[in-house]
Amino acid sequence: MGLDEIIISRAIIERFMEKFLDNLELDVAIVGGGVSGLVAGWRLAQKGRKAAIFERKLSVGGGMWGGGMMFNEIVVQEEAKHLLDELGITSRPYDRGYYTADAIESTTTLASQAMKAGVKIFNLIHVEDVMVRENRIDGLVILWTAVNMAGLHVDPLTIRAKHVIDCTGHDVEVIKIFLRKNQPASLKTETGGIMGERSMWAEVGEAKTVEYTSEVYPGLWVAGMTATGTLGTFRMGPIFGGMMLSGEKAANLIDERLKK
Ligand code: 48F
Predict the structure, then answer these.
(1) For a substitution probing ligand 1, which of 30, 38, 53, 56 has the most ligand atoms within 8 Å of its CB?
(2) What pTM was computed for the model?
(3) For residues 76 and 93, what is the distance between their CA atoms, to the nearest angstrom?
(4) Which of 30, 87, 247, 251 could lock 36 by a disulfide, CB 3.0 to 4.6 Å apart?
(5) Superfamily of chain region 23-62+117-259
(6) What are the counts of helices (DSSP H) followed by strands (DSSP E) for the chain?
């Protein structure tokens, strides 16, 4: 066949715009395409919910690519092994309930399964704010990452969502922005504010991160390291079961809520 550059350009623009327009109104907007965000998106899409992930970087996967200190293997504990199996990620038993998996296979398979389940991923988009209506989160304010990096004076666009999950990891980005812009709003935490991440203690950190995965303000949820940092517990380091279980828990809780 002959190739026409303009047809190629038109195909990209039209198909992207179709996808983008179709995702302006969502059941769930997930901020951050790292481990917890991808698992949450995967599970929500499996349950038939309209969910999309907004990731500011070129690639999704967050902290999973690099394993521990760039040794590209991840460790997952027994409690989350069912998720590796369900996703089709090859794992190997290591010792008494610990499993290892290749970090690249884990990341690419998770992203692929999330997309195949039906979640849409928009990369290169920075979430810079939320929309709030009558004491409830109403959606996201988004801008191209490149615009943000260049410091250009360009106004953003918006996504309406019934629920927003902050899966931005250690940065706790959406929660921070929300608190800064909506004083005197407070979160469902001990102080009403961000409790802060503590030093490393894998066992407690993993369990608490899953326990703390919750709605901290009407319509605003925390999962993954954002739950760790918002409700305040120990970091867990290079073990990924808690992140995966946290994403799954957020999806299940929101799905239940959407049924009401
Ligand atoms: O860091 P990340 O994977 O978060 P997570 O799901 O998992 C944490 C683990 O990777 C690891 C760990 C435990 O094993 O300690 O660090 O909690 O993914 C966070 C994603 O959010 C994106 C960021 O680029 C990354 O891919 N992100 C952060 N801020 C924004 C954002 C933002 N404002 N807008 C869009 N994406």
Answers:
(1) 56
(2) 0.98
(3) 10
(4) 247
(5) FAD/NAD(P)-binding domain (3.50.50.60)
(6) 9, 13
